[in-house]
Amino acid sequence: MQFGVFTVGDVTPDPTGGRTPTERERIKAMVAIALKAEEVGLDVFATGEHHNPPFVPSSPTTMLGYIAARTEHLILSTATTLITTNDPVKIAEDYAMLQHLADGRVDVMLGRGNTGPVYPWFGKDIRRGIDLAKENYALLRRLWREDVVDWEGTFRTPLQAFTSTPRPLDGVPPFVWHGSIRSPEIAEQAAFYGDGFFHNNIFWPADHTRRMVQLYRRRYAHHGHGRPEDAVVGLGGQVFMRKNSQDAVREFRPYFDNAPVYGHGPSLEDFTEQTPLTVGSPQQVIERTLAFRETVGDYQRQLFLMDHAGLPLKTVLEQLDILGEEVVPVLRKEFARGRPSDVPDAPTHASLRAAREVPVP
Amino acid sequence: MRLTVVSAGLSTPSSTRLLGDRLAQSVTDELAARDHLLSTEVVELRELAGDIASHLVTGFPPPRLSAAIDTVTNADGLAVVTPVFAASYSGLFKSFFDVIDPDVLTGKPVLIAATGGTARHSLVLEHAVRPLFAYLRAVVVPTAVFAASEDWGSGGDAYTDALPGRVRRAGAELAALMETRPAGGGPEDDVAALERGLADLRFD
């Protein structure tokens, strides 16, 4: 099982009287978080993609390429890459390029985005969001898998005799996750292609997560990719830890109360009960995270949101130390316990290349 | 059959709830006369005020609100009652219907009612509440019931029925609609419902 962090890249004032980081500081902080993730033994770093303040990561492959040069093992991913408003040709090129630079340590999580005006800013119609996700992804797959593409569709100019360069490393396209919170169409898209499905459950009750993952698993089998339990599932998580759980609650509460997305709404206690957010001791985080398996079955990737709501970098790095040293080693051991040996791991470049090289009998 | 009363009254006890109870009794009596047993549930929005605000902020309902939404969704008919605030329904009343999936009220029989200090507010039902439920594609009964303070202590006259008469007429209209509306099936397995919706979705 893979463990990692994902970041939204928000520039948020520290509500405890601290300052607002500059864009440069926030961008450098994201890099520092990625390097820390590798240092403490995590597997994945994923960055969001946004095209409006207060977010900085508009250019994920620039950042991931830089991180690739400074790491050796970390898998570089996104959360999410906008399949609706980006030109699929540019996605094909950018992520193939990143694959070569990172020696294959790359996968991509596709999503539709959550900011309405981004569609018109990029010349797209938000009412066609699902159709854009379908057509653009169908083209992206062909660009990675066929050397020469003739293509005509609804949303971009036709392509004749087009070759996307560089070609994917070793002829193996990056593994694709489809990220969604509430659209069953996206679970269906992931199932149809036999791709991964990431349910970003961090702001949602477990019951909703269970339904979406169940749907994806059933449709994965329906489309002939294997058993429901062979489907590739990823989940989010959000934690804040101190040795003493009261200290964690006391320290995190002002960040929770003022957080973008859910701040000024439910109490920390209610939100903790209703969503995966866990604020407490490392042991509490371990128990809560292990229980995700009861909701969705044995799964492949667990990403944690660690750095939003104005938390200072120093605190985030301390959190990553705790996560890497005290939490994830136990999670690896406990998740492995009772996990059937035929439940697959998340595909990596190496495993996909090996699978391709096995001669089909 | 199931009737759900949605009351947006804020005081305890409230005349809004009182009107909701009278309407429920009227529908019960009318259906009993036609040999139908009616069960009534009441959703008091006052008790859900914090949950409704949380839902607006987080995008998902806390458990108690979720149960209330199910009660509305699964009802065969609704009687909705709001106090008049600033020339319209109250914000709490509107916010509750804002967090309900706009499709679930399609075709559902609804009786609309309101309370206010003076009968001068009565057209709020026609100019604000009825269009809201028309937008939601509900079937709203012709008689909307407005109860001004004075209605609780006065009889009818040559031109207008007294409040009990209007409550009876509206209740009879809702009962007739509920009776003729085909009964909905039991709640479908969520995942099965989603799967069914995906049948036409082609990715190749």
Detailed description of the structure:
The complex is a heterodimer of chains A (361) and B (204). Chain A is 43% helix and 15% strand. By secondary structure, chain A is of the alpha/beta class. Chain A has a single domain, classed as Alpha-Beta Barrel (TIM Barrel). In chain A, strands 1, 2, 3, 4, 5, 8, 9, 10, 11 and 12 form a ten-stranded parallel sheet that branches. A two-stranded antiparallel sheet of chain A has the order 6-7. In chain A, α2 packs parallel to α3 (88-101), α3 (88-101) crosses α5 and α10 crosses α11. Chain A is globular, with a radius of gyration of 20 Å. Chain A starts with a strand and ends with a helix. The relative contact order of chain A is 0.15. The model of chain A has no long low-confidence stretch (mean pLDDT 95). Chain B has one domain (2-197): 3-Layer(aba) Sandwich (Rossmann fold). Chain B is built from seven helices and seven strands, in the order βαβααββαβαββαα. In chain B, a hairpin with a 2-residue loop joins β3 and β4. The chains are: A alpha/beta (361), B alpha/beta (204). The interface between A and B is medium-sized, with 26 and 18 residues.
Which secondary structure elements does this structure contain, and how are they paired or packed?
The complex is a heterodimer of chains A (about 350) and B (about 200).
Chain A: E1 2-7, H1 23-39, E2 44-47, H2 60-69, E3 75-78, E4 81-82, H3 88-101, E5 107-111, H4 118-121, H5 129-145, E6 149-151, E7 159-162, E8 175-180, H6 184-193, E9 196-199, H7 206-222, E10 233-241, H8 245-257, H9 268-274, E11 278-280, H10 282-296, E12 301-305, H11 313-336, H12 349-357
Parallel strand pairs in A: 1-2, 1-12, 2-3, 4-5, 5-8, 8-9, 9-10, 10-11, 10-12
Antiparallel strand pairs in A: 6-7
Chain B: E1 2-7, H1 15-33, E2 39-44, H2 49-58, H3 63-73, E3 77-85, E4 88-89, H4 91-98, E5 109-116, H5 124-135, E6 139-140, E7 145-148, H6 163-180, H7 190-197
Parallel strand pairs in B: 1-2, 1-3, 3-5, 5-6, 5-7
Antiparallel strand pairs in B: 3-4
Helix pairs in contact in B: 1-6, 2-4
